[in-house]
Design goal:
Blueprint: E1 15-18, H1 21-24, E2 29-33, H2 45-57, E3 62-66, H3 71-83, E4 87-92, H4 103-110, E5 114-118, H5 120-124, H6 129-138, E6 145-146, H7 154-159, H8 161-166, E7 173-178, H9 182-190, E8 196-201, H10 208-220, E9 227-229, H11 243-256, H12 265-277, E10 286-290
Helix pairs in contact: 3-4, 9-10, 11-12
């Protein structure tokens, strides 16, 4: 990327230590890896995962997938606007087609993304080649470059290796919230020996370990790096929060002056705080939390 490129990032992103007694009283240091500051519109891991796919697309239309509040759809639409690339978003839930667009989807449309709504049963089967082909045909995207839901594929995983390399030797544990697993897969591969990556899934189901392993096999040929998942902090699933989680996030913002995105980052920080209280980290451990996003304006979350 050159300085004239509208996607040029501010890298490496800052690594900042937070003074927080909930960690320090257990002998644990909390560091924030501020990937939310990489780019004003392609926030955090969205930049790291999307840019390799944009390069692979070589100017073709980008088609991708997501739900009504998908951060990935918003980032793809913004990238399309910045680069003058056509984008198509296949949105889960055909019942949304006749309703006013929520702020997230309205932002996608304003950035020039053409939205195609599909029923949830078909959306769940989009990994099937025949279903995918029919979806692309219905969306007018047969010749487009396909970016998977969440942006996680081998290109994206390799793009996230640099995140681990930027953190090499800086913390014993590096933690990240996970949706589709691509960031964790690349992060773990980039860390140095003796470091481990911890993923905090924001979806229910216990499926992510197999997904991360498959992504690493496609990107590197085998499971790579020391990584694990902590499945207890999804708070009901994607796009779901609780009053307890919202109060925690607001308190963290007040303590540290860092905006806390609710769907991913709040769950990550809550998980790390709980784990520190449980004694999961030995005294003297430095834990780095990757801040992958920031609150979306006008969001209800």
């Amino acid at each position: 990327m050159t300085s004239a490129d509208p996607l040029a990032p501010a890298l490496p992103s800052p690594l900042t230590e937070m003074r927080d007694h909930r960690f320090s009283r257990h002998g644990v240091r909390l560091l924030l890896k501020r990937d939310d500051l990489i780019h004003p519109e392609l926030i955090g891991n969205k930049w790291r995962k999307l840019v390799p796919n944009i390069e692979a697309a070589r100017g073709r239309t980008l088609v991708t997938f997501g739900g009504a509040y998908s951060n990935h759809l918003r980032a793809t639409a913004a990238a399309g606007r910045l680069l003058g690339l056509p984008t198509i978003g296949v949105v889960r839930g055909d019942e949304l087609a006749g309703r006013p667009l929520n702020p997230s989807l309205a932002g996608c449309a304003a950035d020039g993304m053409r939205l195609h709504f599909t029923d949830r049963a078909t959306y769940r089967r989009k990994g099937d080649p025949e279903t995918l082909a029919a979806l692309l045909d219905a969306a007018g995207a047969k010749d487009a470059y396909v970016v998977p839901e969440g942006g996680s594929n081998a290109e994206a995983v390799r793009g996230c290796v640099a995140l681990g390399e930027e953190l090499a030797g800086r913390a014993e544990v590096v933690a990240v919230a996970c949706g589709t697993g691509g960031t964790l897969a690349g992060l773990a591969a980039g860390l140095a020996p003796g470091q481990r990556a911890l993923g905090v899934p924001v979806l229910r189901g216990g499926f992510l370990e197999a997904e991360v392993r498959t992504l690493q096999e496609r990107a590197f040929g085998a499971r790579t790096g020391d990584w694990s998942l902590e499945e207890r902090f999804h708070f009901g699933g994607y796009a779901r929060t609780t009053p307890e989680l919202d109060a925690f996030a607001a308190n963290f913002e007040d303590r540290h002056g860092v905006p806390v995105e609710r769907l991913y980052v709040a769950k990550l920080l809550y998980a790390l705080t709980t784990l520190a209280e449980e004694g999961a980290f030995p005294r003297g451990t430095a834990v780095a939390a990757v801040i992958t996003g920031r609150p979306f304006p006008d969001s209800t979350f």
